[in-house]
Amino acid sequence: MSSFQVPVVAIDAIEGHPNADAIEVALIHRYRSVVRKAEGYKPGDKVVYIPQASVVPDYLMKRIGLWDEAKGIGRLGGPNFNRVSASKFRGLLSQGICLRVTPDEVDSDLVWVDGEDGRTAARVGDDLSEFLGVTKWIPPIPEELLGEVFAPGREFTVDFDIEDVKAFPDAMIEGEEVEYTEKMHGVFTAITILPAHDAQSPAIAEFAFGPDRNMLLYSKGLGAQGLAFKAIEANDKSIYVRATVGLRARLAEFGASIREPLTIMGETFGPGVQDLHYGKELGFRMFGACSGYRGGLEHYGPDRRAELAAALGIGQVHCFYRGPFSWKTLAEHTDGKTATGADHIREGVVVAPVVQRDHIRLGRVIVKSVSEHYLLRKGGTEYS
Hints:
Elements: E1 8-10, E2 13-16, E3 23-28, E4 31-36, E5 46-50, E6 54-55, H1 58-63, E7 67-68, E8 73-74, E9 87-89, E10 92-94, E11 97-100, E12 102-103, E13 111-114, E14 119-122, H2 129-132, E15 135-136, E16 149-150, E17 163-164, E18 177-182, E19 187-193, H3 202-207, E20 215-218, H4 220-225, E21 228-229, H5 239-243, H6 245-251, E22 262-269, E23 283-291, E24 298-299, H7 302-312, E25 319-324, H8 327-334, E26 348-353, E27 358-359, E28 363-364, E29 367-370, H9 372-376
Parallel strand pairs: 17-29
Antiparallel strand pairs: 1-5, 2-3, 3-4, 5-11, 6-15, 7-8, 9-10, 12-13, 13-14, 16-21, 18-25, 18-26, 19-20, 19-22, 22-23, 23-24, 26-29, 27-28
């Protein structure tokens, strides 16, 4: 599950800016953050990293010189001018803000961070979002992406999100067989079909989808909470419901043969979903599948997933590459046009090993690499 943090980090490297004398670039994992050269940062220096999509309080924008006193507003992005966005400085992409800290005079691993009403001690890895009052930007959700829900139980839904590879570069292994699939700009949609013994609870029997009332339909946010859409008339106009009619009909045939929950995960896209439309009709592309209960899920590899997609008669997200991992091949495939029926940019790619494995911090290894053109586009939407 993707988590929002404002962590204390150590700068990995400092690079000169090729087109400016007064600024340079701090490398944090594989993120680049433009900093003033006068700050005198060095590799190994500790900072608080305020990531993209953070909402920064007024006092902090004033402290770091991102406040327009005459207008009484910040100098960041978003409608309230307080949101950290990807931006270009003299042709170089910058993501996130480095906030200066005070090293402890005795303990070299300890730093002091000033908040609005005091200071606190922290070490590398500590999350200071609450202390600093920095929150994650959450866009308002359009009515067609909402609906009435019920609680079938967390064990039956999948809690799914993908972290940025820039935050977890150590999770990647050079030469390992991976696949790069298109990261489509739609909304995550999951359908879980339950075996008969799990579909007998009163709530599921009343509100689940399918002729046997054994299918759960949910978004990313709902699935994380163990919630699902109700199969009621009031939800008939929901994009999630309309986009999965055919898939649910075909999936119903699997009900008698499964012994544990089977989940199909994909992207719903089209007009009214996000700012990138992929054609004139609602669509769904499968990008994942798993079986089992939360905490013990078995995720399907690409070959098994392809077999299931063929059996269901549904399309998958486009695969751009399958072969040995390298940062070079990843860079080559991250930017470009979508491969799904439109003449616009792609959001990026999803990277997953062909043979699934876990990482100590990330968990299951599956990450995204986001296109620079996507990050810098104007008027974008980010409904999840």
